[in-house]
Amino acid sequence: MKLTPLTLVISTFCYSLPAFADERYPAFSTSQNNNVNAANIPHPPEAFHGPSTQEIPELPLMAQVSRQTGEGIKQLGKMIARGSWFDEINPATSGLVRSSVLAGNNSHHLWYYRLQTMVLTGEKDEGLPNINNPGVVAPIPDPGKGEAVILPPPPPPEPEPPQLAPAPQIPTYLALPNMLYALNDTMQTRFHFAARQMSLDDHHNLFVYGYSGGERYRSAQGDSDATSRYQGWMLGARWTPEAEQSPLAFSAGVHKGVMTMLSDTPAGRSQLRMQTQGINALIGIQPPEGWQLKIPLGLTHYRGTLRHETQGEVARISAVSGNIGAEAGWRWQQDAHSLMPLAAAGVQWLHIADFTEQQDAQVDYQLAPQFSLAGGVKYDYQPLSSVKLGLEARYVWHSGRQNTLDAGDMRGLPIERARHSAQLGGYVSWQLHENVEIGTQLQVQQRLDRPGVSDWNVLSGVKVAF
């Protein structure tokens, strides 16, 4: 745009109107209008970038100066609105600008403020809709021309999928198989001890023992820990062929007891009380010296009720466990001392019947057989004809095959088991009479990794020979 008398008159008329500029008085008088050149044009203010609006007093005059495109500015109430492409005249400024400091590539000599609101062009444009006038769009800012680009706020993050809160009895379900595996192994070991004690003489024997013990299960993450206590009695007998000094012997017995298992979590305490009953057998070839061979077998049934301190009775649980194995060793006898290195292998299986909780949640176990290998040594000492002492130490490796649990909507929960443990036991027996002997054995088992079960048990009783 070129300077004309009309534009100078409009500019001079608007000098007295307060608006955007800090200067409120004309920089030159109207008598100087005809002498405008680049030398007497005041310097423009520093450029302004980005959208801005400023409230100004009501203007008595609507000054509109159009370019060849027909675009212009417009007063809306107390606001003056114009777009970033309006490069014309600001009727509220204090003077003209130098031609050498023009904004953009425009040819006119007037500086302006770029206002980014309420753009009224009368033309279609691929800009942003005007929220106050849906029929008009605002132009898209051009970063290449120094215009601020307003980025939309980032979308809110998607909410994480809801996670199912585990029921408070889930830790008990996860610990239960390990507790039953350990108890089944303990009962077989206790019967094995009783049968071995009876085999040290040449008579048929009958024995009665009471047992007591406890287990402590530690999970890998510490979220399904549990403890248990158990006690009961065991009754058994040994039979040998009529042949004198026969190394072959067969022993069998039954046991009955109760186990109480506790699981304490932030969600509350659960208690499982189970009745246990089972049978055990041992077939052995046990000469006084030389090779020893034993084949143990066992079967135990469990039945009980799970209760929670806030929910009351939760479920009734039934299970069956079994085991079979073989143990071999060589026994040296030297006066009152005997020593026997040994090796053993076995397999355990456990079946927990599917059951439904009081809240109608279905609980299913998928349990695989568990294999074990063991190696150790036994030592016996008889300082007196009526007193016998002994020690036994073993290292046990378990296969740790994967077991899983499905409980309600929670599927495929892994059930962990220790792979390595150490056992240490000792006994003492005293022969009260030719046919009566009392004895006590103490055994402890320590897990060597996590997860796993550590336990202890005591067996005390009497055997009668006839």
From TrEMBL:
- What InterPro entries does the record point to? Autotransporte_beta, Autotransporte_beta_dom_sf, OM_autotransptr_brl_dom
Signal peptide: which range, if any?
A: 1-21
Q: Can the keyword Signal be found in this entry's annotation?
A: yes
Indicate the segments forming the Autotransporter domain, all copies: 208-441
Among Pfam families, the record links this protein to:
Autotransporter
Q: Which UniProt keywords apply?
A: Signal
Does the UniProt entry include the keyword Signal? yes
A GO CC term attached to the entry:
outer membrane
**Which superkingdom heads the taxonomic lineage of this protein's source?**
Bacteria
What is the designated name of this protein? Autotransporter domain-containing protein
Organism listed in the record = Pantoea dispersa
